[in-house]
Amino acid sequence: MPYYISPEKLKKFKEELVKRKTLLRQQIAKKIHEARMQGDISENAEYTDAIEAQAFNEGRILELENIIKNAVIVSRKPNKTKVHVGSKLIVKDKAGNKKEFYIVGSEDADPGKGKISNDSPIGEAFLNKKKGETVIVQTPKGKVKYTIIEIK
Q1: Is residue 79 domain-resident?
Q2: What letter does residue 47 receive in the DSSP assignment?
Q3: For the segment 80-120, what is each residue's pLDDT rounded down to a tens digit?
Q4: 1, 3, 27, 30: most buried, per Cβ within 10 A?
């Protein structure tokens, strides 16, 4: 499965991966060692916490490696004729209100800032549409109709 992400987000994921593989692994190994040195580990909360932290860290490492391996960098030169990941849109709803959306990969999504995931209902509805087309999106508040005014 491809992960559509910005170059900046990819850099952050790579930095996080290095930190988790080096610093965090070492810190967790030290905590596990210290907890074992206390004796009986069967009822040792510190040991249990350290083992859980280790499992979480290793899971996140696998997740980051998968994202990085399957990363598709969002184009800096968007296609202005059709909506795709990386497109900025200006749309108008049926009341005439204008909104701006930026279609991004799920890892970069921030709906409060208008960054809509390509996997979201709104993002999926806009993909491959052209300027002037109207889309109807099912939202939690009901169906919303948008007309694409501009693709940037």
Answers
A1: no
A2: H
A3: 788 988 899 999 988 899 999 999 988 889 989 999 999 99
A4: 3
Check whether residue 107 and residue 46 sit in a common domain. Answer: no
CA-CA distance, 112 to 116, in Å (whole number)?
Answer: 9
CA separation for the pair 149, 103 (Å, rounded): 15
3-state helix, strand, coil in the chain (%, to 5): 45, 25, 30
How high is the pLDDT of residue 43? 81
Are 145 and 94 found together in one domain? yes
Instruction: Please tell me which of 27-31, 44-48, 142-146 the model is most confident about, judged by mean pLDDT.
Output: 27-31
Show which of 73, 99, 130 is a domain's final residue. Answer: 73
- Domain housing 118: 88-151
Residue 131 belongs to some domain of the structure:
yes
Statement: the pTM of the whole predicted model exceeds 0.85? no
